[in-house]
């Protein structure tokens, strides 16, 4: 079965807490083309959201509006209690942004660069201690290297460090682990969990890696046709779509596979019939990728 972040029972922020993100009927039009057509969602303190969707669905436009870099055509948007179209420097200091491409600071040394960026936040917030931050993103052995000497994966870690140097309340991650090897990806996932669970950082990430989204996100938002077509945990979306599971087992040396939408009931019936003859039982539930593709097919088929 797919490993998932075990946070489903954690309340999304304290009772009555104001949403970190509150997006209502967000619309964006370029000429006669509606890129966003009524996007609505919220995010609570400490919640990790994954914004998924095919290329051209409007993910980048949505993120840029929330970050205050693009004006919307219509709708109401509140980010940390402020309309991003009117956010000032104090408001912006509460955000962290990790873009897809790394910044070209090739002549700086890693530690010096992070100390430099951290100094920008000193007036408004308490930034990470530079050595603690370098360790958190796994760059301690490279702290005194010039940025231009880093590998692609190491540069990506530096991007992440720059994005969180100011201890943001809200962190935007755009394809955060592009170029990471498996070990670096695991370490980064641990860091995301720590930021959300220990620092109450709200995180909105976009990724094409659906396995990563399933591991990291409390809630999945699927954007298609300029609107949110699905909003819920990976498990809840799978249940909503009645996406089946595979039950696999061995009996008398024979291997069996059965597809079902009621795995628990089927396993109970299996044991009632065969008891201890059942060996090597395994239940494989639908992955987020299965659910994602099913939701897109349903949307494209005109089923709402």
From TrEMBL:
Localization in the cell: Cell membrane
Pfam families cross-referenced by the UniProt entry: ABC_tran
UniProt keyword terms in alphabetical order: Antibiotic resistance, ATP-binding, Coiled coil, Nucleotide-binding, Transport
Membrane topology per record: Peripheral membrane protein
Chief place where the protein resides: membrane
SMART domains: AAA
MF terms in GO: ATP binding
Domain of life according to the entry: Bacteria
ABC transporter domain location: 21-250
Coiled coil: 271-298
InterPro entries referenced in this protein's UniProt entry, alphabetically: AAA+_ATPase, ABC_transporter-like_ATP-bd, ABC_transporter-like_CS, ABC_transporter_ATP-binding, P-loop_NTPase
Keyword Transport tagged: yes
Keyword Coiled coil in annotation: yes
PANTHER family the record matches: ABC TRANSPORTER ATP-BINDING PROTEIN
Protein name: ABC-2 type transport system ATP-binding protein
Organism (species): Amycolatopsis thermophila
Lineage: Bacteria, Bacillati, Actinomycetota, Actinomycetes, Pseudonocardiales
